């Protein structure tokens, strides 16, 4: 009985301890929900890449998104990014995506913002006489939760790894 009274007194004197644990539980649930939403965004991007569906890829971007691709001028805004995707279509006639993967290495979620980085790999086979495109590099995404609750890409930066040196 004495133990119960001490416990009740501790709760009465220290309500922040209970509130803190509830807040931590809510934060963990929110973080888990955010992670699931970001994982879903990543799965949509992988599916769009594999099917070479540029409209689906463009739909994952925030209206004010910025794409920083090695060797290209910055693309600012969803419209510019969509135009770039559309410019790829004529170059891909008859092409087949063999693989398009991102091995995510880290993710950090901070409120309505998140960043993640990974190693991306891609192989596209083209009709003869064109040789296949094989690429590997690093990718960084900065994501923002939109007012409707969905996560969108705010910034992407990626670059290619140097080609492997041929055996001598």
Describe the structure.
The protein is of the alpha+beta class and 168 residues long. 38% of the residues lie in helices and 37% in strands. It is built from four helices and six strands. The chain has helices at residues 2-13, 15-50, 54-58, 78-88, and strands at residues 61-69, 75-76, 96-110, 113-125, 133-145, 151-160. The protein has a six-stranded mixed sheet. The protein is globular, with a radius of gyration of 23 Å.
What's the SSE blueprint?
Blueprint: H1 2-13, H2 15-50, H3 54-58, E1 61-69, E2 75-76, H4 78-88, E3 96-110, E4 113-125, E5 133-145, E6 151-160
Parallel strand pairs: 1-6
Antiparallel strand pairs: 1-2, 3-4, 4-5, 5-6
> Rg from C-alpha positions?
23 Å
Give the SSE string: HHHEEHEEEE
Chain-averaged pLDDT: 86
Give the strand order, joined by hyphens, for the main sheet. 2-1-6-5-4-3
What is the tally of helical segments? 4
* Shape descriptor: globular
Task: Tally the beta strands.
Answer: 6
* Spatial gap, N to C terminus: 82 Å
Please indicate the percent range of residues in DSSP E strands (runs of 2 or more): 35-45%
Largest sheet: 6 strands, mixed
Helical amount: 25-40%
């Amino acid at each position: 009985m004495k133990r119960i009274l001490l416990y009740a007194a501790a709760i009465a004197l220290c309500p922040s301890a209970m509130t803190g644990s509830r807040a931590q539980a809510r934060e963990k649930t929110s973080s888990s929900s955010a992670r699931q939403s970001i994982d879903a965004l990543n799965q949509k991007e992988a599916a769009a890449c594999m099917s070479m569906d540029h409209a689906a890829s463009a739909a994952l971007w925030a209206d004010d998104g910025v794409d920083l691709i090695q060797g290209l001028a910055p693309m600012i805004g969803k419209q510019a990014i969509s135009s770039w995707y559309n410019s790829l279509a004529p170059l891909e006639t008859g092409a087949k995506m063999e693989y398009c993967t991102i091995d995510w290495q880290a993710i950090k979620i901070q409120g309505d913002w998140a960043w993640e980085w990974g190693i991306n790999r891609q192989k596209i086979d083209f009709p003869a006489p064109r040789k296949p495109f094989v690429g590997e590099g690093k990718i960084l995404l900065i994501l923002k939760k939109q007012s409707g609750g969905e996560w969108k890409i705010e910034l992407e930066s990626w670059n290619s790894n140097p080609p492997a040196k041929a055996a001598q």
